[in-house]
Specification:
- There is one protein chain.
- The chain is α+β, with helices and mostly antiparallel strands.
- Helix content is 25%, strand content 27%.
- It starts with 18 loop residues before the first strand and ends in a 13-residue tail after the last helix.
Amino acid sequence: MREKGNILDAPYKRVERREVAVVGGGIVGVSAAYAAAVRGEGKVRVSLYEASEVGHTGAASADLNRVFRFLSGPDPTLTVWSGEARDLWVALGREWGSPVFHQTGLALLVERGDGVETTGGHVYPYDSAASWLEDALRCMDEHGAPYQRVSPAELVERYPQFRGAALNEAVIDPQAGYVEASRAVAATLDLGLKAGVEYHPGVEITSVESVGDGCRLLAADGREMRADAVVVAVNGWTEGLLPQLKGALTLTEQPLIYLRPPEDSSILMPGNLPMYISLTSDCYGFPIVGGELKIADDNAFRTIGHPDERQDPPREHLERVVSTVGKFLPSVAGAVVERTHTCFYDRSKDGRFLLDALDGEARIIYGCGMSGRAFKFGPVLGERLARFAVEGERPSDIKEFRAR
């Protein structure tokens, strides 16, 4: 039984397009297909095309887990979306029969410097983590989202795993946690299929164009498909499919590091250790999930031209990230690296999403420029893009994410 009470339970106000194609099987694509099928209530035929298969190892959405947080900075839209996304993640898990979101809390940390304040990309375009925090917390207050601003001593009293001497202050986001990434994608696809989505794995779409009152899609094998509207959500592969967006995105390697937990790992388990993000170094990490301790540096490691150019990170990078995290979380210092995975971000010029139509009639809808911030909002982004495609009218809360 579907859980009532979220936006997916409301049928579309009007159905202008009865055949919608979705290109890309990452979290945004599968969420768009699922939303169009569920809200269309059998009136919309939804086809999902994926060049490989949903959840393939090279996908940006394929991983153990992703951070979910309410405190997303001084952005009212993202703050509101956080609440909606959390409800959708919880509902998705209940409908699927197994949770994909786990609430652990999140500690946002401001580290001590040697008289010089440094800031990570999480606070861009601010020059100061303190200023970013002030505006971000004001936004949280305006929307009634809970948080606790604590001193290093108060943080250590609650979470003794952290080294208070390394910190200036911290903010605890109690409703934050993590989403099991690969399982969430699989769950969304599974529920989408049950809702009537037609899934076409191994079909690489090489061209999308607006033709008359619809769209034409060409596949690498020569096949031609038609749809009333198309949603393109292929992140790092966007410019190859939509050359009109050339230059809008920068692709960067993002190495993920999985550590062997120490022998006494109980203090690093969910419930004992929250998620954490340093607003100073941009390093972040998770409690132990699946027997692994995941950490990473959110800064761009290397610019690449295509997702296929990704390489394994050098030993020096791994040692630097382990050392950086170890300064404020001593249990990580000197930990053994078990494995790595090189993800990638499709970064927009200003770090904000690009959610727009390629043509004047809104036949070709796209979402890209996710900049490493999209997974947590996956169900929301998918719903908005699907609604744009089906109703033919831009949802009011994505107007600020037009191409720029």
